[in-house]
């Protein structure tokens, strides 16, 4: 499983970007994103995702949760 940034919750503060040891988080024109090919959820070193730990709005989620929420919004 991998992590995604929920754009609805992201405050675009940038606090997550320097925490990523794999440099998987980057800024786009109007949001932050996670490069799925680089994200390891910090399991090899820390056990828990550092970016999610510092996110003040709980905007970093596991991909399945995000997809599940989108389905709920579409289909109720």
From TrEMBL:
Top-level taxon of origin: Bacteria
InterPro entries the record matches: 4Fe4S_Fe-S-bd, 4Fe4S_Fe_S_CS
Entry keyword set: Iron, Iron-sulfur, Metal-binding
Iron-sulfur found in the keyword field: yes
4Fe-4S ferredoxin-type domain boundaries: 1-30
Name of the molecule in the record: 4Fe-4S ferredoxin
